[in-house]
Amino acid sequence: MSAMFVMIIASLSIALGFLGAFIWSVRKGHYDDDYTPSVRILFDDTSSDASKNNTKDIH
After folding, report:
1. Which DSSP state fits 32?
2. d(CA 40, CA 33)
3. Helix (H, G, I), strand (E, B), or coil: what is residue 30?
4. Which top-rank group of organisms is this from (predicted)?
5. 17-56 pLDDT per residue, tens
6. Contact assessment for residue 25 and residue 31, using Cβ atoms and an 8 Å cutoff
7. 52 vs 1, 18, 32, 46, CA distance in Å?
8. C-alpha pair distances (Å), 58 with each of 30, 51, 55
C-alpha cells in the first residue's frame, strides 16, 4: 500500500513539473507564431464571388 502512495506522489510531482514547464514556456512566448504572418500574403485566397461567376448551368 505504501508503494502505491509513493507512485501517486511521484506521478503527481512529475505532472506538476510538466505543467509548470508548459506555463513557463507559454509566458515566455515560445508558442508565438512569428513565421505565418510574414508569409500569409503569399497564400492564395479563394473568393466565393469569383467561383459563383465562373459556374455555368448545364441544363
Report:
1. -
2. 12
3. coil
4. Bacteria
5. 999 999 999 999 988 888 887 787 888 777 666 556 666 6
6. yes
7. 70, 50, 37, 11
8. 53, 16, 9
